[in-house]
Structures are given as structure tokens and as C-alpha cells.
Design goal:
Layout lengths: L8 E5 L12 H18 L11 E3 L1 H9 L6 H11 L4 E5 L14 H20 L20
Parallel strand pairs: 1-3
Antiparallel strand pairs: 1-2
């Protein structure tokens, strides 16, 4: 972020490095790649890991999300929100390891259900009304949401 002050959010992507493949079940990787494919089309820029929670925000992004942060599936929806508010993001490679303990809240059996809910949330996010920008905020691409 220091290298490019125009970037509002940096996402640590598990899929931008060749040295270590992220160890996740096929069902989870499939969902991540489907969300990445859809977001690439919607925001017209590279997105490889939209579900990564490893993120860095600048003050503009924090100000946006302090007023209006997605509740159900924030990682995926936040990428779409940045686009709607003309904020910029970039992904950087990170290496993540297998879980050291505990269990994921998204088991293989719940993956399909989770994917459907996230897809619905993305669809709703395309058309939902957005709060009016505060003074000093970047101008949104669309006045009230929708593509």
C-alpha cells in the first residue's frame, strides 16, 4: 500500500504464488474460483482470492466500511462495494498454511449451500441502494447502485 497510495485495499491472495498450493478441500476451492470468476467480470480487474480475510485498508476504505459493511459474506461483497464506490484494490501473494487446530465453519456438506447464499448476496449487492457519499468521498460509479 505504501508503494501505491492510490490503492484503497490490499488482499493477500493464496492463489498468486506457485511455491505453495493452498491446501483446501476441492469444494471450497471450487467456490472460491467461482466467486473470483464472477467478480473479475463484475469489477473488470483481476481477482483471484475474494474470500481471503487477509486484508489491509486505507482510511478511505475504512471510512466507507465504517458506514456500510456487508454483514453476511463481507469478504466477497466488499470487493463489489469497492468497485461501486470507485475505490481501488490490489492482490498480493501470501502463503497460508493448513489450519493448526479447530475446524472450519464451512464443511464440505455446507459448501454448496454457502456458495448459493454468497451468489445471492452478490446479486443483491449489484442492485441495492448505497448510502449517499460523505464530503470528501470519491464519486461513486453509479448514483444509487446497480450495474
Amino acid at each position: 500500500m505504501d508503494a501505491d497510495p492510490a490503492i484503497d485495499m490490499v488482499i493477500g491472495s493464496r492463489f498468486l504464488t506457485d511455491e505453495h498450493e493452498y491446501p483446501a478441500p476441492v469444494s471450497r476451492r471450487t467456490g472460491i474460483h467461482i466467486f473470483a470468476f464472477l467478480l473479475r467480470r463484475l469489477v473488470r480487474q483481476p481477482v483471484s482470492d475474494p474470500t481471503s480475510g487477509f486484508r489491509l485498508y486505507n482510511r478511505r476504505a475504512i471510512r466507507l466500511f465504517a458506514r456500510d459493511y456487508p454483514h453476511d459474506y463481507p469478504e466477497v461483497e466488499a470487493v463489489l462495494m469497492l468497485h461501486h464506490h470507485s475505490l481501488r484494490m490490489r492482490e498480493v501473494p501470501v502463503r497460508m498454511h493448513e489450519r493448526g487446530g479447530g475446524a472450519s465453519s464451512i464443511t464440505s456438506g455446507k459448501s454448496a449451500y454457502y456458495m448459493l447464499k454468497v451468489l445471492l448476496a452478490l446479486f443483491v449487492g449489484l442492485f441495492r441502494r448505497r448510502p449517499v457519499p460523505m464530503a470528501g468521498d470519491p464519486a461513486p460509479l453509479r448514483a444509487e447502485g446497480g450495474l
